[in-house]
């Protein structure tokens, strides 16, 4: 049976309440000041792979959209991350964070040190958006519903617990507090309108679950390689050999 608009929205929000990656223990450690400098660096390196893929995901989505109104609404997402003449963009702001934690931004941008599981998860998301229906692609983006809370907690926790943290280093998160609500208001409305059968609602919910799994898998990979303690896979960033700014300067 097709759910009412309010019931379906509540279903989507419940997915976030149960499955969003703010529930992962890595975030408790990160926001509570429990990460070592190298664990912070590993997080920045691996999360960058996701950040740089977002505009590619959005470009892949737009390439399949025949409605110019939808393309026009979606276009700002690419600009938010890639930047414009007046906006340096989220990717550059993330690389600023990388420099703040002592990493060489060129090394981070190369994605050479990314964990295999991070790469597989993010690449799976790109394929999902490229190959699935437009409804599923938009629904997968609705993890943005839950992002403002984690960004606010992250800003407060990093400022309180880490010496590197200041407004300059954390500008990515502050900007997302403004950008994400704009994006998700449109995306949520689009999904609520277009998921007009029980089958489509189930597809949209499954797509959102898939995206929460993508985010969770990235943190599981970090935890297993740099926290557990685990084994860092071959080719992934090694703390004792990473390209830190101080090492390059010397």
Descriptive account of the structure:
The chain has one domain: Heme oxygenase-like (Heme Oxygenase, Chain A, Up-down Bundle), CATH 1.20.910. It contains twelve helices and no strands. It has helices at 5-19, 25-31, 37-62, 68-82, 90-100, 105-110, 116-131, 134-140, 147-161, 171-194, 198-227, 245-249. The termini are far apart. The model has no long low-confidence stretch (mean pLDDT 92).
Q: Which fold does the CATH topology refer to?
A: Heme Oxygenase, Chain A
Instruction: Assign the CATH class.
Output: Mainly Alpha
- Run of helices and strands: HHHHHHHHHHHH
User: Low-confidence runs (pLDDT<50, min 5 residues)?
Assistant: none
Per CATH, the superfamily is Heme oxygenase-like
- The number of distinct helices, counting runs of at least 4 residues, comes to 12
Roughly how much helix do the residues carry, as a percent range? over 70%
What is the count of β-strands? 0
Beginning-to-end CA distance, first to last residue: 66 Å
Identify the quaternary structure here. single chain
Largest sheet: none
Q: What count of domains describes the coordinates?
A: 1
**Which structural class do the helices and strands define?**
mainly alpha
Q: Give the DSSP E fraction (strand runs of 2 or more residues).
A: under 5%
Average pLDDT score: 92
Q: What's the architecture, going by CATH?
A: Up-down Bundle
């Amino acid at each position: 049976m097709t759910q009412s608009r309010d019931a379906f929205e509540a279903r989507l929000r419940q997915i976030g309440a149960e499955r969003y990656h703010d529930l992962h223990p890595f975030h408790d450690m990160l926001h509570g000041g429990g990460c070592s400098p190298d664990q912070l660096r590993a997080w920045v390196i691996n999360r960058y792979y996701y950040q740089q893929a977002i505009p590619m995901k959005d470009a892949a989505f737009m390439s399949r959209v025949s409605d110019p109104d939808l393309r026009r609404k979606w276009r700002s997402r690419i600009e938010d991350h890639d930047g414009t003449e007046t906006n340096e963009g989220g990717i550059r702001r993330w690389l600023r964070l990388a420099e703040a934690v002592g990493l060489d931004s060129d090394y981070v941008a190369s994605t050479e040190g990314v964990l295999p599981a991070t790469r597989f998860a993010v690449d799976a998301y790109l394929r999902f958006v490229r190959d699935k229906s437009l409804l599923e692609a938009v629904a997968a983006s609705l993890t943005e519903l839950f992002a403002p809370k984690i960004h606010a907690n992250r800003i407060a926790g990093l400022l309180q617990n880490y010496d590197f943290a200041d407004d300059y280093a954390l500008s990515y998160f502050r900007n997302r507090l403004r950008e994400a609500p704009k994006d998700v208001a449109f995306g949520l409305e689009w999904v609520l309108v277009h998921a007009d059968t029980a089958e489509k609602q189930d597809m949209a919910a499954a797509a959102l679950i898939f995206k929460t799994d993508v985010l969770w898998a990235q943190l599981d990979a970090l935890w297993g390689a740099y926290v557990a303690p685990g084994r860092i896979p071959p080719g992934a960033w090694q703390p004792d050999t990473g390209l830190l700014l101080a090492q390059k300067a010397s």
